[in-house]
Amino acid sequence: MRERTIASHFARAVLKGAHRRGYDTESLLQQLGISPELIEEPRARIAPELFTQLIQGIWLALDDEYLGFGQAPSKPGSFAMMCHAVIHCRNLERALNRGLLFYSLFPGAPRLTLTHEDEWVRLSLDDAQLWDPDHFLSECLLVIWHRFGSWLIGQRIRLEQATFSYPRPEHGAEYDLLFSCPLTFAAGQSSLLFHSRYLHMPLLQDERTLKHFLEHSPANLLSRPDDGDSLSSRLRRLLSRDSTRWPDLEAVAAHLHISPQTLRRHLREEGSSFQELKDQLRRDIAIYHLGRADLSLQQIAEQLGFSEPSAFHRAFKKWTGLTPGAYRAQEN
């Protein structure tokens, strides 16, 4: 239930690679039961599992794990083979270096490098040669390598900085969910910076856990949220524990042992607000239930704390551009 929904922007972006290769994306959407109207609505959100299916469908259709955005295609199975190549490495540094070496063997593959900067390590991506109008492949590669590394050692690698070689895109607000760290746009390179202590940590995964991991990876690495260390992330986790009671700001501040004024200020510094976080969570929970048809619209409205269904209808349309009924009809 805590899973964040995916902005429709990313669905439109991933379809561009298929369009580029001349693939009929409308038939793919029809096969997956995804409404084109849902994809085209700028405010719409998509359930994570649906986004995973979309990515996997395009991989199979194009026979390309780079989704049509690379200089040359990457055959499906390449990521899995890389994982098998690194799973027995002694520590994260050896695993990352071996994984990057694996991809460097393929002509036209995007180049990633690992460099030391005193006590820090920078994972850099050379994205200059990519056909990537929405920077989708650049985002994917950085997200996948960060989350794959975190999975290998069994804990989230805390990012100190993420830089991007391009100006802040229109969907830049989504980057807080992708990377959960300070962001710098229009930089000299696209990269992730983290502490070198992680490199010496042993791998906690093995062939058995890798088999389960690869059933949906790397698509699920892109569709699940990065549970970062920000106050916004902590509040989301707190609110999602019991979405039937919906505590107010004063109760949450008391739980965190800070004043309501301090809570508001910290959230403002992160570019958010308590009401915005609450609405995002309610939106995602609504989408979860609308996609499953397990509750009526009235039951969903009650669970989200709305006094009457009409208020829920108005709020949901404001959040997503669609009414709950229209959303349910397009998802099912």
From TrEMBL:
Stretches that traverse the bilayer: none
InterPro entries according to UniProt: AraC-type_N, Homeodomain-like_sf, HTH_AraC, Tscrpt_reg_AraC-type_HTH
GO molecular function (one): DNA-binding transcription factor activity
Recorded GO CC terms: cytosol
Pfam families in the record: Arabinose_bd, HTH_18
Keywords: DNA-binding, Transcription, Transcription regulation
Domain HTH araC/xylS-type: 233-330
Name of this chain's protein: AraC family transcriptional regulator
Source organism per UniProt: Pseudomonas vancouverensis
